[in-house]
Amino acid sequence: MSEIPKEGAHVLDECKALANETRLRILEWLKDPEANFPECTPGLGVCVGLIQRKAGTSASTMSAHLAVLHRAGFLHATRRGQWTYYRRDDERIRAFTERLHSVL
Fold first, then answer.
1. Among the residues of the chain, which ranges form H helices?
2. Going by C-beta distance under 8 Å and a sequence separation of 6 or more, which residues neighbour residue 6?
3. Is the Cβ–Cβ distance between 74 and 17 less than 8 Å?
4. What confidence tens digit (pLDDT) does each residue in 3-52 have?
5. pTM here?
6. Please, are residues 74 and 89 in contact by the beta-carbon 8 Å criterion?
7. Nearest CA to 43 among 94, 91, 86, 90?
8. CA-CA 20 to 30 A from 58: which of 3, 14, 85, 102?
9. H or E segment at 39?
């Protein structure tokens, strides 16, 4: 079996990040943060605590999910004091779907 080209390996890593129901839900919720998190800060994003509460997970589990999505490039993270806010990187998500289409 031949080695996966670099572009294909990158798509594989991104697919792994999406291979979890909670992470997919997070991306879905962040698509319309004002509707899903009325307490969010428009333009800044949604704080981890709000996402954690909505998902019903522990803080450590949520941090792990958000870290995976952030490393894959699907989320922007912004620190403000002790708080971290997340928002989608729609341009990066769009680029992923284009890469996926070109690989498949």
1. 6-18, 21-31, 33-36, 48-55, 59-71, 90-103
2. none
3. yes
4. 555 555 678 889 999 999 999 999 999 999 999 999 988 889 999 999 99
5. 0.87
6. yes
7. 86
8. 14
9. none
